[in-house]
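Appendix C reproduces, verbatim, an entry submitted by the partner laboratory led by Prof. M.T., so that reviewers can inspect both the input and the predicted structure.
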Amino acid sequence: MKYVLSVLFILLISQTVLSQHDDTIQWKTWTALEKAIAQEPKPVFIYFNAEWCVYCKKLERDVFTKKEVIKTLNKNYYAVEMNVESLDTIVFDGVTFINKQAETKRNGIHELPLLLASQENEPFTLPATLILNRNFAIEQKIYNYYTSKQLLEMLN
């Protein structure tokens, strides 16, 4: 009886873990992204946000929870999410990135989003989303809210 209960418990836990994989976007860290790209090149979806960004919260609640968006991102892209005010030191492609602005500004922006998502002659704005091809070249920059339908059109 103990054996049967143990097997049922393990099956239940594994089923729960497997089903969770399909319920959320599998966000990668920058380190995990670098390793994944080296093993199997794929397009990359980068989403920059901040705690205070209202439209970022709306994207997270209304777009990134849609099954078709989750399925498309998890299957066809490596997805990275980053809080632009992060104080983490990030090493990517042999280069170290930090949040230098945090030393002098209240809401300092990390170097990585400044490098990748800045607009020419414009202040840095959120939400900022980048779609990169499998060679890590930027295909599209989006600096506003989008619906799940609009996102799926951009991804396909």
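Helices lie at 2-21, 30-39, 54-62, 67-76, 111-117, 148-155. Additional entries are available on request from the coordinating office.
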